[in-house]
Amino acid sequence: MFGNTFPSQPVRVLQGNLDADPEPELALWFDTLETGTIVCFDRRQQVWACMGETSLNFFHGDKSPRIDSKTGMLLTYDYGWGSGYGSEILNLYQSINDSLYCVLVLLESEGKWLLGSTAHQFVNTRFRLISPEKIEATLVYRVLAGDDMGIHSGRTIFSRKLIFEHYWDKDQKRFLPAQYPGLSGEDYLTDSEFELEELFAEEIRKLKFHGPKWKRRALGNPED
Q1: Is 204 in a helix, a strand, or coil?
Q2: By the 8 A CB rule, do 116 and 201 touch?
Q3: 35, 61 in Cβ contact below 8 A?
Q4: CA dist., res. 217 & res. 209, Å (int)
Q5: pLDDT value, residue 74
Q6: Distance from C-alpha of 40 to C-alpha of 138, rounded to nearest angstrom
Q7: Which long-range contacts (CB under 8 A, 24 or more apart) does 90-98 make?
Q8: What is the mean pLDDT of each run of 10 residues along the chain (224 residues)?
Q9: What is the pLDDT of residue 1?
Q10: Is 53 in a helix, a strand, or coil?
Q11: Residue 59 to residue 221: CA distance in whole angstroms
Q12: How far apart are CA 18 and CA 22, in angstroms?
């Protein structure tokens, strides 16, 4: 915590409701180009009290933190990167007993090569708050033909939509995902290397060897 001092960088101000009372909370955030910090305050008996703070990441992305009016949550981003790889990871923060907690982390978007081909695979996830005890995340997984495919470049080779349900765990103070058939562990939506490739491997293999010719070529079939 900053104590009685604040960074010399420009201060940005967010205002929105993070708790049950009608009075909005304030969030001050500081951007140092590559990193930053956001501090949330709640007004209690005419005094602004600190609810908590968290770090910000701008190394490989520039999405600003925001207070989501539909869910009453603070949203921030982290980023993954690498050769032929990029991801945006969404952190959801909630006020619990006047303190700030990270209650869910979601892989909002991801793009990377499909091994053994020029095709790209993409993940896009959107969430909605069903109730105070349930969050639903809808994930779309797509494989698109690479740039070398001429008129087929960018066409969808394979696409699936999955719906993941997350339920509130009062002991851990976070939303935990219900087990999804074919996937293991509870963090497959928080990690860029989760198990979707394995989940859909057999369907994609069938397209690679038995699908239309353009899909076979796009997926790296050595005979095409």
Answers
A1: helix
A2: no
A3: no
A4: 9
A5: 96
A6: 29
A7: 90/125, 90/127, 91/54, 92/127, 92/135, 93/40, 93/52, 93/54, 94/18, 95/18, 95/19, 95/25, 95/40, 95/42, 95/51, 96/173, 98/19, 98/42, 98/44, 98/49, 98/51
A8: 56 88 88 85 88 90 91 93 88 93 93 92 94 94 95 97 93 89 64 68 95 96 86
A9: 46
A10: strand
A11: 37
A12: 9
At CA 168, angle to CA 163 and CA 172, rounded to 5?
Answer: 125
Beta bridge mates, 171: none
Q: Identify the residue whose tokens are 């959107």.
A: 126
Torsion of CA 224, 150, 157, 142, to 10 degrees: 130
Residue 192: per-residue pLDDT: 45
Q: Quote the tokens at residue 95.
A: 């006020």
The Cα angle at residue 63 between residues 61 and 65, in degrees rounded to 5: 135
Residue bearing tokens 């703070």: 53
Joined together, the tokens standing for residue 151 give: 């008129």
Tokens of 188: 């497959």
Between the alpha carbon of residue 197 and those of residues 117, 141, 192, the distances in Å are: 14, 9, 11
Q: What's the confidence (pLDDT) of residue 99? A: 93
pLDDT at 130: 96
